[in-house]
Amino acid sequence: LGLLTVTTLLAETNQAAQTVKDPPAEAQKEKSAELKTGKYYIDNGKVRLGIDLDRGGSVFYFAQSSTKKNLLNHADEGRFIQQSYYGEPDGSVWGGNPWVWNPIQGGGSKGRKAKVRSHILEKESLKVVSEPVNWGGDNAMPETEMEERITLEGDVAHIHYIFRNTGENAKDHPEKDHELPAVFVDADYPNMVFYDGGKPWTHDKLKSVVPGWPNESHVRTEEWGAYVNDKDWGIGVYTPGSTRCTDYRYKGSGKTGPEGDSCSYFAPLRNFAIKKGMTFEYDVYLYIGTIQEIRDTFYKLHEAQK
């Protein structure tokens, strides 16, 4: 972990009871088996996305439906596609260093798992409301709440994140960079591709780097980045409104794969102060393909949002 994402949404006045909408009869057995493991998948025949309901509903799996090859890494509670926010020093410690108020969607650094407050699960969409965990302190954070609403739209997974700092003991925090969101990818995809020039959205030349360790910083003026293999194939993440990112590659033992200790990481960043009573929302789009397909897809999304 480096910077972690936590999705925190504060409890709404009327919380819906946990709900699972019945899938079609032929899929009920499969869904029942998945839920027993805490995992739930949505699939529209083009892409397949999985969340971990034992860890705040964090996204641990994203693949093309045809191959079911997961491109993400989920080796611990900090490694998902998930929300993560930062605040004032709170006396917590991580990695032997003083840490800060840091709600994480998946759980804490000592293994405490984030609790799901409610969920609605359908075949091609889902909604999860969760109570995050403080990364360094490993304590529950009932003053905050996270929500994610995910829909599969053709080859694209669209995630709408909401964070609320509205609970009884919510506080004001100073300006910090926040991970919007944290993204952990299988280390088999080492090349981070993005555009950092002065002519965004004009098909200008892309930049490719292999990040080192620890965190590096980059500017992405087209507001998206991708991790791809040496065949220029991999996963792209588009986060409208975020032009900066932090990133690294962690080698560990060298073990790759979804549960390997090696990983490729980046997080789009925005700087703002979290205040008591605040609600913050943003959108994320995921796509799998060649770097040209990734860029073309995000160009279409960008054009549609004008």
CATH fold-level topology: Beta-galactosidase, Chain A, domain 5
Order of helices and strands: EHEEEEEEEEEEEEEEEEEEEEEH
| Alpha carbon gap, first and last residue | 35 Å
Order of neighbouring strands in the sheet with most strands: 1-9-10-12-13-22-19-18-15-16
Class from secondary-structure proportions: mainly beta
Contiguous helical run count: 2
Oligomer status: single chain
Low-confidence stretches: 1-23
Question: Would you tell me the overall average pLDDT?
Answer: 91
Mind telling me the CATH class?
Answer: Mainly Beta
Shape: globular
For the biggest sheet, the summary is: 10 strands, mixed
Which CATH architecture?
Distorted Sandwich
Q: Would you count the extended β strands for me? A: 22
How much strand content do the residues show? 35-45%
**Rounded Rg:** 18 Å
What count of domains describes the coordinates?
Answer: 1
Helix content: under 10%
List the SSEs and their pairings.
Blueprint lengths: L18 E2 L4 H12 L2 E5 L3 E6 L5 E7 L17 E3 L4 E6 L2 E4 L2 E2 L10 E7 L3 E7 L1 E2 L10 E9 L2 E10 L9 E12 L4 E4 L12 E3 L6 E4 L4 E5 L4 E6 L5 E7 L12 E11 L4 E13 H14 L2
Parallel strand pairs: 1-9
Antiparallel strand pairs: 2-3, 3-4, 5-14, 6-7, 8-11, 9-10, 10-12, 12-13, 13-22, 14-21, 15-16, 15-18, 17-20, 18-19, 19-22, 20-21
Explain what the structure shows.
With 306 residues, the protein is mainly beta. It has one domain (19-304): Beta-galactosidase, Chain A, domain 5, CATH 2.70.98.10. The chain is built from 2 helices and 22 strands. The strands form 5 sheets. The protein has a 10-stranded mixed beta sheet with strand order 1-9-10-12-13-22-19-18-15-16. Strands 5-14-21-20-17 form a 5-stranded antiparallel beta sheet, with no helix packed on it. A 3-stranded antiparallel beta sheet has the order 2-3-4. Strand 2 and strand 3 (47-52) form a beta hairpin. The longest helix is centred in the last third of the chain and has 14 residues, at 291-304. It is globular and about 50 Å long. 45% of the residues are buried. The model is unreliable at 1-23 (pLDDT under 50).
